[in-house]
TrEMBL record:
GO terms for molecular function: ATP binding; protein serine/threonine kinase activity. One of its GO terms (biological process) is mitotic DNA damage checkpoint signaling. This is Kinase-like protein. It comes from Lophium mytilinum. Residues 1-22 have a biased composition (Polar residues). Residues 1-51 are annotated as: Disordered. Residues 58-350 form the Protein kinase domain. Keywords: Kinase, Transferase. GO terms for cellular component: nucleus.
């Protein structure tokens, strides 16, 4: 019988390699964790071990993605289905009371990956239990099931929007590059920066912070009219104390305080690269402070290409940019026109590959018909 340890995060009201190659095709679940594309790797009943790794109290809906390290499946709690026995009579747009319960289950694809699953779940739990945790800007762990003789899984709150990569890389944007509002880029700068600064304050490095691992959540808006920016996929994250306490480790821990500083410095560079990529699409660049910001980003880009930025300087980059531009970003974001917000949200919904209301409804109807 499988040896199992189950870890749950209580009181949540909302329902390998250790180095990232920085490519969604190579990192396995780096971007696929949240993608809605159907492929030959889609969740099916063909592998009973995969099916058995999904917690029994969850109803699988469809695959969210797959990669080298495993699969991710959209699910909904079975216990909630009885409240929607008349779902066929529901309007075309399902209520948030139902859609808000959708989650994703991340199943690690080999029996030897328990140490990676434990590390990721433990780091997310550590962050969630810490003071100042920005719950709407970091993917939220609901529970996990660690197995030494089977496939381990993690249940994570779903984000119902596109990744930044999907948002800026679709056919809707290819007709011209200058379509994005600078106020929206300031929004990403503030919210993604908040998430990164928080995890670094907790001595956690992400090690995979690029466009495919940043999502936009239109259903939750802490700044009215714009989607929350969510940092996802902590599969390559590191935290020294967590790794020292990992019961599934079979190798010596190589992470040191010095290497953590280097990793967090690389996170800072990755953060600036994300923001710099968005800057390429900005149309209204008449702000003097904005031009100063873009010029500074370009200056660092050139220096980084020439290997002229030391590890010590990289470790302070995020705080340096925030000290110079946080106030500007806050002030200019407030000035964003309502029409520009609407355009951003319309484009966001058009590029989302998350679950549709129809898919949720069909899965629930099929399950209720079995009863």
């Amino acid at each position: 019988m499988a040896s199992t340890t189950t870890t749950t995060i209580p009181n949540l009201s909302r329902a390998g390699s250790d180095q990232s190659p920085h490519s969604s095709k190579e990192t396995g679940l780096a971007s696929a964790e949240w993608e809605g594309e159907e492929s030959e790797n889609e969740y099916s009943d063909e592998n009973p071990e995969w099916e058995g790794a999904i917690p029994k109290d969850l109803l699988p809906i469809r695959a969210a993605g797959s990669g080298a390290f495993g699969k991710v499946v959209y699910c909904i709690p079975r216990g909630s289905l009885k409240d929607y026995a008349d779902i066929t009579k529901q309007p075309s747009h399902l209520p948030m009371s139902l859609k808000g319960q959708v989650c994703v289950v991340k199943v690690h694809g080999t029996r030897t990956n328990a140490h990676m699953a434990w590390r990721e779940a433990s780091i997310l739990r550590f962050l969630q239990e810490s003071d100042g945790y920005p719950r709407y800007n970091i993917s939220s762990l609901i529970g996990c099931d660690m197995q030494t003789d089977g496939l381990s899984s993690m249940t994570i709150e779903a984000t119902h929007g596109p990744t930044l990569s999907e948002f800026v890389g679709t056919s809707l944007t290819r007709s011209g590059r200058n379509w994005l509002s600078r106020e929206f880029v300031w929004h990403v700068f503030l919210q993604l920066g908040k998430a990164m600064r928080f995890i670094h304050s907790m001595k956690v490095s992400h090690n995979d912070a690029f466009l495919d691992n940043v999502m936009l959540d239109p259903q939750r808006q802490t700044f009215p009219g714009l989607p929350n920016v969510v940092l996802i996929d902590f599969g390559f994250a590191h935290h020294i104390d967590t790794e020292r306490n990992n019961p599934y480790n079979t190798t010596e821990i190589s992470t040191t305080p010095e290497s953590m500083d280097v990793q967090m410095g690389r996170d800072n560079v990755d953060f600036l690269d994300v923001v710099s990529t968005l800057c390429d699409f900005v149309c209204n660049d008449e702000s003097e402070e904005w031009l100063s910001f873009v010029n500074l980003l370009q200056e660092y880009e050139l220096r980084l290409e020439d290997d002229e930025v030391s590890d010590d300087e990289k470790s302070g980059l995020l705080d340096y940019f925030f000290s110079r531009y946080e106030g500007v970003a806050i002030a200019e974001r407030v000035q964003m026109h309502e029409m520009d917000k609407k355009k951003m949200m319309d484009h966001l919904y058009a590029t989302s590959r998350g679950l549709s209301d129809k898919e949720i409804r069909n899965a629930i109807v099929a399950e209720l018909e079995k009863a």
